[in-house]
Amino acid sequence: MQSSADKGKNTKEFAIQFDKFVNSSVHVKLSGGRQVVGILRSHDALFNLVLDDAVETLTRGDEPATTRRLGQLICRGPCVLAVNPVHGSMQIENPFIDKE
C-alpha cells in the first residue's frame, strides 16, 4: 500500500503538454501526407487525438489544394507526425533552402 508521500513519486510527466491546446484550433500533420485542422477536444498518453469540426486539406503534386469537412475525427497516435496551434504561430521561409 502506498503512503500519501509515495503517491506523487510515481506520476510521469510527458514531454509534450497538450492540455494548453485543448478547446483550441490545432493543425495536425498525419502520415501519408494528410493534414487536418480542427478543435482539439481530448488526447491521451499514446498521442491519440480527438478533433471536432475537422477539415482535411488534400494536396496532390501541383494541383490546387482541396478541402473536405470531416466533422469529429479520431487521429491515432502512431499516425500523428506534428501538432501545431493554429493561432499564435506563423509560417516562415525555410532557412535551409538556398535562395540562389
From TrEMBL:
Record's keyword terms, sorted: Ribonucleoprotein
InterPro entries xrefs = Lsm7/SmG-like, LSM_dom_sf, Sm_dom_euk/arc
GO cellular component terms, alphabetically, are: catalytic step 2 spliceosome; Lsm1-7-Pat1 complex; spliceosomal tri-snRNP complex; U12-type spliceosomal complex; U2-type prespliceosome; U6 snRNP
**Sm domain: which residues?**
16-85
- Please, which domain of life does this record's source organism belong to? Eukaryota
**What does the record give under GO molecular function?**
RNA binding
User: Pfam families from the entry?
Assistant: LSM
Q: Does the keyword Ribonucleoprotein apply?
A: yes
Return the protein name: Sm domain-containing protein
